[in-house]
Write a structure and sequence with these properties.
- Chains A, B: Its EC number is 1.1.1.85.
- The structure is a homodimer.
- Chain A starts with a strand and ends with a helix.
- By secondary structure, the first copy, chain A, is an alpha/beta fold.
- Chain A is built from 12 helices and 14 strands.
- Bound molecules: 3-isopropylmalic acid (2 copies).
- One 3-isopropylmalic acid sits at the interface of chains A and B.
Chain lengths: ~350, ~350
Amino acid sequence: MSHNIVLLPGDGIGAEVIYAAKDVLEAISKKYNRTFRFSSYDIGGVAIDQHGTPLPDETVEACKQADAVLLGAVGGPKWDNNPSDLRPERGLLGIRKALDLYANLRPVKGFPKLLHASPLKEEIIQGSDLLIVRELTGGLYFGQPSERIDNGNAVVDTLSYTKKEMERIIDKAFQSATLRNNHLTSVDKANVLESSKLWREIVEAKKAEYPDVTVDHVLVDAAAMKLITNPTQFDVIVTENMFGDILSDEASVLTGSLGMLPSASLAEDGVGLYEPAHGSAPDIAGQGIANPIAMILSSAMMLRYSFDMNQEADAIEVAVESVLNQNYHTADLKNEQGALVNTSEMTDLIVKAI
Amino acid sequence: MSHNIVLLPGDGIGAEVIYAAKDVLEAISKKYNRTFRFSSYDIGGVAIDQHGTPLPDETVEACKQADAVLLGAVGGPKWDNNPSDLRPERGLLGIRKALDLYANLRPVKGFPKLLHASPLKEEIIQGSDLLIVRELTGGLYFGQPSERIDNGNAVVDTLSYTKKEMERIIDKAFQSATLRNNHLTSVDKANVLESSKLWREIVEAKKAEYPDVTVDHVLVDAAAMKLITNPTQFDVIVTENMFGDILSDEASVLTGSLGMLPSASLAEDGVGLYEPAHGSAPDIAGQGIANPIAMILSSAMMLRYSFDMNQEADAIEVAVESVLNQNYHTADLKNEQGALVNTSEMTDLIVKAI
Ligand SMILES: CC(C)[C@H](C(=O)O)[C@@H](O)C(=O)O
Ligand SMILES: CC(C)[C@H](C(=O)O)[C@@H](O)C(=O)O
């Protein structure tokens, strides 16, 4: 049985890190006798340049046929002043919608060796290990109307959700909590938004199905504070799309390991898309110095979630940890001790450790 | 000439801190020969209990007649399960709208003596001094429709703004930047939201009127990261209501001085409302141990913005700083050295220092 993986390198450092992840997957394939087939398609800025659209039909088709998708990153200054429909981000939003990737899972966990790089004091960040479950295909990102009104003198965006959309992401988060420490924090703005009130009702109703899970409700503004003052209080956080965008980026810098954080975007019964939490980093693109670890750990998430290959996923995670424990680091990690390595050296070290 | 100040103590520690601020204002009145007249009205939970509504008409009327309003805090577990229109927060949202308090100014500045309480490493937080200018009467908080649709199977909230509403807050922020370090960071989500695109256009257009101000545009998710990794890069941040709610609370915990942070909510030509950045803290209410400094500094903002009494405002700020420098602190500040004092002792110390 072979697994068909679509690679979407995208822009900036996207290609550099995605081919690093491919190397690691090939090492896994040899060691565990697995067959992965890879094909590459364009998305984002590079797709605008090549095909006149950030999301060519053939890319969507290939992803729909695939067993899983790896995405590098999209965007860059070159396309920043393009009209909306010719912006790289449209490719990302488009593929999320096309594949119905409603559940974005973002684990945030500090590597003991890297905690020194955290902006937080060590006693605050130590021991933090959380998972943000963000709704990814609804809310303000996709609601209609989203347009100028009143002859251009006013503007409107729409935060809309169906009950079903809320239910499936909340259910996913409860499930995730049972696989971790049975603690779910639901984040909303129920003291102001009608959508948040419905959200909270659904969370409350779901509790009955997951009696082992302890549930807190936290307002989004308070959550933004607590992530900083007491990140260890969280296990799984679930929230809607826009709040999740803000809080997951906020959380991503807490451990000092942004270049290490993977993410998974999952459909109900379909394909999963895996990408690093970081962006396309145009400032260092093409130099071969990007940290490939977030992308490599994203491919480990793919093995775990899409292919049920837990042993293989573990092997990647253990290899990464062991290389870091030997004090190897890429330029972003600003480690004073140890050896500075570039993208391909880091990748080789991880491959060897596997 | 006398100044007519309406006090809205509200719930929890609200009353304790507001009467502390009144004591300080009375000391100012003696020293500088100013006449302040005070009257108190109900808002929030206490108003629900006394009048059956979180915002009685007489409260609105009194505020409209006042020269300035001081607000303690609203909310508490007692009213948490009330229906929407009988929740304390409705009083706050209602008074903002009734007085057209469109501009919420939230300075965040660390006190050197208190930086040890910051969750951030000292080298990161040191020197940070920023002002968040949040739009307070538009966006998702007030947009219509905000309701269940499709027989309760879906829900919608509306993020709406007129160009005028955006222009006045953006103008206020540019003005604020000229009074500080001439650096304005506009925060939006222009890669996704139509409202953010209009927002960004207006910021760009305004630049011409303020040639000395340097302007950056930062996406809200990136802003949530940068506040933590590099808070000193900011001077004035301007953003819409919901983003401002999240980012200003996030920013409020950075310096370790949440109990010290004031805020001002201003109308175009009308009255200003001043309140601490912290909430009603029901857990410590009634014990007389709340930190009154945020409220006292809010009254200093009132003197400065509403009454043009800069010398008097300075006197309060200097007095607070000198008491802190003597290592006096309330229980929230967790200072190991120095003397622990309660609300009234802290207030007396500040009064004496004036
Ligand atoms: C690029 C942008 C549209 C996207 C989002 O806001 O969802 C990104 O910030 C993310 O979090 O994946
Ligand atoms: C109480 C609540 C409605 C309010 C808001 O969200 O505006 C509060 O969080 C604030 O920031 O003043």
